[in-house]
Amino acid sequence: MSKQAEVLVFDLGGVLVDWNGIDPLLRLSDGRLEREQARLFWIDSPWVAKLDLGECEPREFAAAMTDTLQLGVDADAMLGQLSDWLAGAYPGARELLADLSTRFPLAALSNNNALHWDKIDREFGLLPHFRHTFASHLLHLRKPDAAIYRHVQQTLGVAPEAIAFFDDNIECVEAARAQGWQAFHTVGLPQVRAALQAQGWL
Description:
202 residues, 5-stranded parallel β-sheet, globular, PGP-like_dom2, Haloacid dehalogenase, HAD-SF_hydro_IA
Protein backbone atom coordinates (compact mmCIF):
# COMPACT_ATOMS: atom_id res chain seq x y z
CA MET A 1 0.00 0.00 0.00
CA SER A 2 1.30 3.46 -0.93
CA LYS A 3 1.63 6.58 1.19
CA GLN A 4 -1.69 8.24 2.00
CA ALA A 5 -2.62 10.61 -0.80
CA GLU A 6 -3.59 14.21 -0.08
CA VAL A 7 -4.90 14.99 -3.58
CA LEU A 8 -6.31 12.69 -6.28
CA VAL A 9 -5.60 13.77 -9.84
CA PHE A 10 -7.41 12.19 -12.79
CA ASP A 11 -6.90 12.19 -16.51
CA LEU A 12 -10.25 12.38 -18.30
CA GLY A 13 -10.29 10.55 -21.65
CA GLY A 14 -9.96 6.80 -21.19
CA VAL A 15 -10.11 7.13 -17.40
CA LEU A 16 -13.39 8.88 -16.51
CA VAL A 17 -14.62 9.72 -20.00
CA ASP A 18 -15.43 7.38 -22.87
CA TRP A 19 -13.03 8.63 -25.52
CA ASN A 20 -11.80 6.19 -28.12
CA GLY A 21 -9.67 7.71 -30.85
CA ILE A 22 -7.96 4.42 -31.63
CA ASP A 23 -10.60 2.01 -32.97
CA PRO A 24 -12.27 4.62 -35.22
CA LEU A 25 -8.85 5.66 -36.48
CA LEU A 26 -8.04 2.04 -37.34
CA ARG A 27 -11.28 1.81 -39.31
CA LEU A 28 -10.65 5.07 -41.15
CA SER A 29 -7.11 4.00 -42.03
CA ASP A 30 -8.50 0.88 -43.73
CA GLY A 31 -5.88 -1.35 -42.16
CA ARG A 32 -2.86 0.86 -42.84
CA LEU A 33 -2.38 1.63 -39.14
CA GLU A 34 -1.77 -0.92 -36.41
CA ARG A 35 -3.27 -0.37 -32.96
CA GLU A 36 -0.06 0.82 -31.32
CA GLN A 37 0.60 3.17 -34.24
CA ALA A 38 -2.87 4.66 -33.77
CA ARG A 39 -2.32 5.07 -30.02
CA LEU A 40 1.06 6.68 -30.54
CA PHE A 41 -0.42 9.14 -33.04
CA TRP A 42 -2.18 10.80 -30.10
CA ILE A 43 1.08 10.87 -28.10
CA ASP A 44 3.73 11.72 -30.70
CA SER A 45 2.11 13.61 -33.59
CA PRO A 46 3.26 17.26 -33.87
CA TRP A 47 -0.29 18.17 -34.90
CA VAL A 48 -1.74 16.57 -31.77
CA ALA A 49 0.80 18.54 -29.74
CA LYS A 50 -0.34 21.77 -31.43
CA LEU A 51 -3.99 20.91 -30.71
CA ASP A 52 -3.27 19.99 -27.08
CA LEU A 53 -1.28 23.19 -26.57
CA GLY A 54 -4.01 25.42 -28.01
CA GLU A 55 -1.79 26.37 -30.94
CA CYS A 56 -4.28 25.41 -33.64
CA GLU A 57 -8.05 25.34 -33.99
CA PRO A 58 -9.84 21.97 -33.98
CA ARG A 59 -10.89 22.33 -37.64
CA GLU A 60 -7.29 23.07 -38.67
CA PHE A 61 -6.22 19.95 -36.78
CA ALA A 62 -8.94 17.87 -38.43
CA ALA A 63 -7.75 18.93 -41.88
CA ALA A 64 -4.13 18.17 -41.03
CA MET A 65 -5.04 14.84 -39.47
CA THR A 66 -6.96 13.57 -42.48
CA ASP A 67 -4.16 14.76 -44.79
CA THR A 68 -1.30 13.34 -42.70
CA LEU A 69 -2.95 9.95 -42.23
CA GLN A 70 -4.59 9.93 -45.69
CA LEU A 71 -8.00 9.17 -44.21
CA GLY A 72 -10.06 10.18 -47.23
CA VAL A 73 -12.55 12.47 -45.45
CA ASP A 74 -12.84 16.24 -45.56
CA ALA A 75 -12.07 18.51 -42.61
CA ASP A 76 -15.69 19.12 -41.59
CA ALA A 77 -16.49 15.40 -41.59
CA MET A 78 -13.33 14.69 -39.61
CA LEU A 79 -14.22 17.40 -37.10
CA GLY A 80 -17.65 15.81 -36.60
CA GLN A 81 -16.07 12.43 -36.03
CA LEU A 82 -13.60 13.84 -33.53
CA SER A 83 -16.53 15.21 -31.53
CA ASP A 84 -18.47 11.95 -31.78
CA TRP A 85 -15.51 9.88 -30.57
CA LEU A 86 -15.93 11.61 -27.19
CA ALA A 87 -19.01 9.68 -26.15
CA GLY A 88 -19.66 10.75 -22.55
CA ALA A 89 -18.71 10.09 -18.94
CA TYR A 90 -18.35 6.41 -18.08
CA PRO A 91 -21.35 5.10 -16.13
CA GLY A 92 -20.64 5.67 -12.46
CA ALA A 93 -17.91 8.29 -12.97
CA ARG A 94 -19.93 11.18 -11.53
CA GLU A 95 -20.96 9.10 -8.53
CA LEU A 96 -17.36 8.01 -7.92
CA LEU A 97 -16.11 11.61 -7.98
CA ALA A 98 -18.95 12.74 -5.70
CA ASP A 99 -17.96 10.04 -3.18
CA LEU A 100 -14.22 10.75 -3.37
CA SER A 101 -14.72 14.51 -3.09
CA THR A 102 -16.07 14.09 0.43
CA ARG A 103 -12.62 12.82 1.51
CA PHE A 104 -10.08 14.25 -0.94
CA PRO A 105 -9.51 17.37 -2.96
CA LEU A 106 -9.82 16.28 -6.61
CA ALA A 107 -8.14 17.62 -9.72
CA ALA A 108 -8.36 16.88 -13.43
CA LEU A 109 -5.20 16.84 -15.56
CA SER A 110 -6.02 16.34 -19.22
CA ASN A 111 -4.45 16.77 -22.62
CA ASN A 112 -7.45 18.45 -24.17
CA ASN A 113 -8.65 20.93 -26.78
CA ALA A 114 -11.35 23.52 -27.30
CA LEU A 115 -13.72 21.12 -29.09
CA HIS A 116 -13.68 18.40 -26.45
CA TRP A 117 -13.36 20.62 -23.38
CA ASP A 118 -16.49 22.54 -24.32
CA LYS A 119 -18.40 19.27 -24.77
CA ILE A 120 -17.17 17.90 -21.44
CA ASP A 121 -18.11 21.13 -19.70
CA ARG A 122 -21.61 21.32 -21.23
CA GLU A 123 -22.69 17.67 -21.23
CA PHE A 124 -20.77 15.37 -18.89
CA GLY A 125 -21.34 16.76 -15.38
CA LEU A 126 -17.81 15.96 -14.17
CA LEU A 127 -15.99 19.28 -13.86
CA PRO A 128 -17.94 20.61 -10.84
CA HIS A 129 -16.47 17.78 -8.73
CA PHE A 130 -12.90 19.01 -9.25
CA ARG A 131 -11.30 21.65 -7.07
CA HIS A 132 -8.74 22.25 -9.83
CA THR A 133 -8.84 21.59 -13.57
CA PHE A 134 -5.66 21.55 -15.62
CA ALA A 135 -6.41 21.44 -19.35
CA SER A 136 -3.43 21.42 -21.71
CA HIS A 137 -4.92 23.77 -24.30
CA LEU A 138 -5.58 26.41 -21.63
CA LEU A 139 -2.22 26.04 -19.88
CA HIS A 140 -0.20 25.67 -23.10
CA LEU A 141 1.52 22.73 -21.41
CA ARG A 142 0.91 19.04 -22.09
CA LYS A 143 1.64 15.58 -20.75
CA PRO A 144 4.06 13.85 -20.65
CA ASP A 145 6.30 16.96 -20.57
CA ALA A 146 7.72 17.51 -17.08
CA ALA A 147 6.65 21.17 -16.97
CA ILE A 148 2.95 20.41 -16.65
CA TYR A 149 3.49 18.12 -13.66
CA ARG A 150 5.60 20.76 -11.96
CA HIS A 151 2.89 23.36 -12.62
CA VAL A 152 0.20 21.11 -11.16
CA GLN A 153 2.25 20.32 -8.06
CA GLN A 154 3.04 24.00 -7.47
CA THR A 155 -0.62 24.92 -7.81
CA LEU A 156 -1.76 22.13 -5.50
CA GLY A 157 0.84 23.12 -2.91
CA VAL A 158 1.60 19.60 -1.69
CA ALA A 159 4.63 17.31 -1.74
CA PRO A 160 4.94 15.23 -4.92
CA GLU A 161 4.46 11.94 -3.09
CA ALA A 162 1.14 13.23 -1.74
CA ILE A 163 -0.32 13.35 -5.26
CA ALA A 164 -2.05 10.23 -6.62
CA PHE A 165 -2.53 10.32 -10.38
CA PHE A 166 -4.56 8.08 -12.69
CA ASP A 167 -3.93 8.00 -16.46
CA ASP A 168 -4.54 5.56 -19.31
CA ASN A 169 -1.29 6.30 -21.17
CA ILE A 170 1.79 4.67 -19.68
CA GLU A 171 4.02 7.49 -20.96
CA CYS A 172 2.07 9.98 -18.83
CA VAL A 173 2.16 7.67 -15.81
CA GLU A 174 5.92 7.21 -16.07
CA ALA A 175 6.45 10.97 -16.41
CA ALA A 176 4.41 11.56 -13.25
CA ARG A 177 6.42 8.93 -11.38
CA ALA A 178 9.62 10.66 -12.50
CA GLN A 179 8.34 13.77 -10.66
CA GLY A 180 7.81 11.73 -7.50
CA TRP A 181 4.04 11.32 -7.80
CA GLN A 182 2.17 8.15 -6.99
CA ALA A 183 0.88 7.29 -10.45
CA PHE A 184 -1.37 4.46 -11.61
CA HIS A 185 -1.89 3.13 -15.13
CA THR A 186 -5.67 2.72 -15.34
CA VAL A 187 -7.72 2.17 -18.50
CA GLY A 188 -11.43 2.62 -17.85
CA LEU A 189 -13.38 3.15 -14.66
CA PRO A 190 -13.15 -0.44 -13.30
CA GLN A 191 -9.36 -0.17 -13.22
CA VAL A 192 -9.59 3.22 -11.49
CA ARG A 193 -11.86 1.72 -8.83
CA ALA A 194 -9.55 -1.28 -8.41
CA ALA A 195 -6.50 0.95 -7.92
CA LEU A 196 -8.31 3.15 -5.41
CA GLN A 197 -9.52 0.11 -3.47
CA ALA A 198 -6.07 -1.49 -3.48
CA GLN A 199 -4.66 1.66 -1.85
CA GLY A 200 -7.48 1.84 0.69
CA TRP A 201 -8.73 5.15 -0.71
CA LEU A 202 -12.18 3.87 -1.70
